[in-house]
Input
Amino acid sequence: MAEGDTGAPKAGGAAQSDAFSKREAANEDYYVRQKEMEKLQNLKQKIEEHKKHLEELDKHVTDTMAQGKK
Output
């Protein structure tokens, strides 16, 4: 097999492979962190929407109770 063929060892030996592995792991970690941040932002937005909805329901209940006392 020639250098670069599938299954052939890469030029540069273990040191180059180790540096590549570290860079690849760092890129994967960064990607995962970005996706987690997106998910957290979406959850935060949904929480705010639910809070607003609960406040509207609470106001409706309060208004309904106030009308019933008249």
